[in-house]
Structure of Four-helix bundle copper-binding protein:
Amino acid sequence: MNYHDYKSCIDACLRCAALCDHCASSCLQEENLENMKRCIQLDMECATLCYAAARLMSIGSEQAGALCRLCAEMCERCSEECGKHAHEHCKECSEACKTCAEHCRKMAA
Amino acid sequence: MNYHDYKSCIDACLRCAALCDHCASSCLQEENLENMKRCIQLDMECATLCYAAARLMSIGSEQAGALCRLCAEMCERCSEECGKHAHEHCKECSEACKTCAEHCRKMAA
Amino acid sequence: MNYHDYKSCIDACLRCAALCDHCASSCLQEENLENMKRCIQLDMECATLCYAAARLMSIGSEQAGALCRLCAEMCERCSEECGKHAHEHCKECSEACKTCAEHCRKMAA
Amino acid sequence: MNYHDYKSCIDACLRCAALCDHCASSCLQEENLENMKRCIQLDMECATLCYAAARLMSIGSEQAGALCRLCAEMCERCSEECGKHAHEHCKECSEACKTCAEHCRKMAA
């Protein structure tokens, strides 16, 4: 198993990670910053796991599945939190997290 | 400037990084391993810079341009080395590095 | 729980990650390269998980423990493989992986 | 040149990166969150560059010096911003950034 077997999951992880990073920095510019604290925190956590999962899949690690299981849980929590906010970056991030969670669940199965 | 302004360059960096990781681990399985040493080394270096560049762009850092300049140089060297080998993963990686270098050059300008 | 509560485990992860990276690139220079393939592969995997674990602990993620459990398993496998080789970088890396696994096991408990 | 030649600079980068991550998440818990926006942003940027610099040094990349030059600039800006705040995590981070900048300047020279 390698990059090409995992490609759709890797792509979902990388898109999710980049949108989490973008969401975190964009939240810092919002007027209602107090409400965005948990969103920023989860964005940082989620980006970390998504990037690690993409890397383990890309190099064909036997532990990629186990990490994708963790990553899916994280993405679900991040998607839920981002989904509470109306900012465009939060909505995009919430969608990307949801898609990533689905791919990671399948990959881990 | 943020994720959306940089999206094509971020996408090129992420694709390049994942294919560098894939190329490194795939090279380890090749029969002519002695010939692949420099390819593996540059793949590891290039993945590191591409991921860092994607992250600085995603969070809208003022230093993203300077890092993209470095990343472009790395991608050019990695593309050249990978381009010497006939393995499919090397050819894909060489192409992805070349495309990434072009995006990073434009972004840094 | 934050950086200071996890400091000894974070330090062990970061030391292990850096020595895995060092071991991977050093293995590429060894004469018996064919024998070092699995070592290089596991070094790359282990560095990825150790860095991710250190980051989740540093930002106080609720999923840090679960990732440390995975990281411990990876470190044990990498330690065992590195421990088969007499190169100084392999021995250092094997020791660092073993120490990191112990810290991660405790942290995950 | 490899890990051992760069060890003090790698250690400074890794300590700085972990304290930047810690500072970012700790800032999110502070009462005066509006004042901490730039600190959180620079912490995220600085952690990214410090981790990348540590990795390029650990694998002995020829581009490690150029990245350390960028990293030093980033650390100086992050140190200055963190130094404006009285929170313990900001003071620790500011000191770690300053030390890291010094090591990276020397390494890049």
Remarks:
- Residues 7-108 of chain B form a domain with the Substrate Binding Domain Of Dnak; Chain:A; Domain 2 fold (CATH 1.20.1270.360).
- Residues 20 and 43 of chain B are 5 Å apart (CA to CA).
